[in-house]
Amino acid sequence: MTEKNKQKYNITAEKLLKSARIEEKDCMEFMSGGFEDSLLNKIHIQSINLNTEASILRKIVCLYKNKNFLYGTIAISFMFFFLLLAVSILLLLPNKESPKGNLDNNTTASLEYVEGEVERKQLDGAWLKLDEQSTLAEGDTLRVNGKGKAVVRLGEGSSLRLGDDTELEITSLNPHDLIFTNNTGEIYSRVIKLDRSFQVKSNDISYISLGTAYLTINRVGKKGVEVYDNVVNISGKPLNSEVSVDQGNKYYFENNDDQTAIGIIDPISSEEMLKNNFVVWNKQEDEQNPNYNKNMGVLVNISVPTLTISSPSNNTITNEDNIVIKGSTDINTKIYINNNEIATKNGYFEFSVTLHDGNNIILVEAVSDQNHKTIKNIYVTKSPKITDVINPTIKSRIIMSSPSPTPSITKKVTPTPKPTSTPIPNLGTLTLVVTKSSDGLNFEWSVYGANVSKGYKVLLDSKPSPVYPGSNFIYLDDGDLRSYKWLVSDGKVYYARICQYIGNKCGIYSNTVTITAPILTPTPTPLPTATVVPSSITLNYDGFTNVKWSFNGEKPNSFKVLWSKNPNPEDPYRLGDYGVYITDTDLLSANLSPLSGVGVYYVRIIGFYHDGISIYSNSIVVDL
Amino acid sequence: MDFEKELQLIEKSKEDIHYFDEVYRYYFPKIFGYCLNRLANKELAEDITSEVFLKVTRDLSKYKLQENIRFGSWLYRVAHNLIIDFYRKNKKYHYVSSNEDDEIIDEKTNTEKQAYITESQKMIAEVMKKLKPRYQEVISLKYFMERDNEEIAEILGMTKSNVALLTHRALKSFRDKYNKNFPGIEIFDMT
């Protein structure tokens, strides 16, 4: 490579990308003749190929309306092909209904209940969070991500309930042939009695029911079905023939807990059902639904205490520091909230729980005399109600939900009554202090009782309550760290906090601190006292792509050649300005490229001296 | 194209593909341009553009607005994924001559404004394919498609602030790989 080619062109990646962009208006020049129309024809033909006979006829009419004989000929060919295909299928499978059926009459499906994080798979494979009442469609795949629950309600009345870490695909919503696929996890199907097929598939197995309550399990080490009401027929590999499993029985294809229980129809004991919180929850849900509670099957054998949470409702969002849990249970049943026993009166209870910023899961347990448990999780999100007003020059301490001695508090808070009962168990707290320095924000924090072995996420956002994922973050993998400096100097208001990193997400969040970033002001350059400044730099053009320069006075420490299609290119650059930074001051020429396309460019050179002094040359015009 | 109109046309296209023509005419140059910028090769750009439109029209019934994916965003996403697939399957595909004596920046061939892919564009494409897919995507959307951060956030399903952060990282990665690949011209981070 020649010396010339090793020259460093001082251009940013951003400008290089912009300069090389092929404009949309120019793109068509690159295209082969007729490509655009040809592709559109292909689209039309493909559509014809994919549509039904009626649709094909419509397309042919449209094509003939366009007087395009070629299209018409192609369409007719396809029509004959499909007619033959349809006749062949009808002859070969006379009694087989199309699994898709009439899509216009599909059973509707919606997400009736959400607990935790429920998501739907997008076309590009990404997962998008779903809220209650979301409409679902055939082909949708949804999952409960981590701990949580979801209820899919069908328009015909049946429900599918998803447990922790469960993925469901809605394979067919044909009202005569409903098909769902249990990709992973546990799905409880509550099927109302109708004259149609309802099946849940899992791997190569089909669990078919006309009106049943059953649980399909597809987890590592455990695969099978538990039937609570009516009958489920199982077919598919590795079975040689269909197996019918009556209510009160289970059938496993895989069971690492008990290898002897594989491939046989085995009774389910009440104790087994009681141990499974998901089954217990399903039983309670069924009991509350008049469409289901007449067909409880063996679920009636589950004797667990009732537990009704009257407030708050699940997935509540609040900006209060505390939330009151109200509910009722059976008399002589103990209630535990977050593992702390609380008092009840005639079965009723009320307890205030302190919330931390972000997601809170409140665990409520009802325990009977026989030690049977009913467990409910209440999901509550706390968003700050106040903007913490912080004098950036003073360290301010804000503590939220901390059981530690109260430090000085500098925030405007409407006093809230303190909990009168037992405090929540110590889940740990992070307490954050943020101060401003000349070039950034200094984060300092303390940790109380939290496991920070996986480190922290330091969060900064222009919106309140920064979260991970979502906000700008810095990951610190060292849990022993207690400070971090975030370099930001744009003078904007930011919301800062840190969180305990627990792998893929955050656990405990600290308090949020609102703070204004510093504005970086250049320190005034003192006038040089004994510096010889050149009187001028003179720039010349050789008529091709080279420019040369000379100077008088003190030699600069470096040069920068600037060129642009706009007059008087500057440093720092404006849009369209380019530069070559030259540290070899013996080099007094540069080769320029037309980075904004060929044409006339304005060129200047700037010489840099110590103490921030610089001087521009004359401006010349070159044709590149 | 007006959003409401686009939506209506797509819904009607599910029944009659001819309603798709107007949508196609609107998006075709954008998607072709996107592919051209990414691939720096007109034949490949045509192939991928064909695949994009044939795929989306085949799956048109699956397009649902409630999934918060604008149709244009979907098209770009499909194009991006197909390009990534192409790179994956053609790892040895190179654009730039290995002759080091070649002029690194030689855009004089473009003086007559003819439809040439310049060396600079080929070099960029060569570097782009070495970036993480996510980086390729954000750079393409921002600098080739000139999408603002809000639109990119919608397409990538992330917040605007994260788009800015991702762009910053993508540019840094681009700069590093460019400098490594083409030591004759060095990009500085002057922003």
Low-confidence stretches of chain B: 95-114
Which structural class fits the helix and strand makeup of chain B? mainly alpha
Helical fraction of chain A equals 10-25%
Distance between the termini of chain A: 23 Å
Unreliable residue runs of chain A: 1-7, 94-104, 386-426, 523-531
Query: What best-fitting shape of chain A do the alpha-carbon axes yield?
Result: flat
Q: What's the pLDDT, averaged over the residues of chain B?
A: 77
Order of helices and strands of chain B: HHHHHHHH
In terms of DSSP E residues, the strand content of chain A is: 35-45%
How many beta strands in the DSSP annotation of chain B?
A: 0
Q: Tell the overall outline of chain B.
A: globular
Number of helices of chain A: 7
Rg of chain B, alpha carbons: 18 Å
The greatest interface here is: A-B, 69 and 74 residues
Q: What's the number of extended β-strand segments of chain A?
A: 39
Report the biggest beta sheet of chain B as strand number plus sense, adding barrel if it closes: none
Query: Rounded to an integer, what's the Rg of chain A over CA atoms?
Result: 36 Å
Which structural class is indicated by helix and strand composition of chain A?
A: mainly beta
Mean pLDDT of chain A: 76
Beta fraction of chain B: under 5%
Helix content of chain B: 55-70%
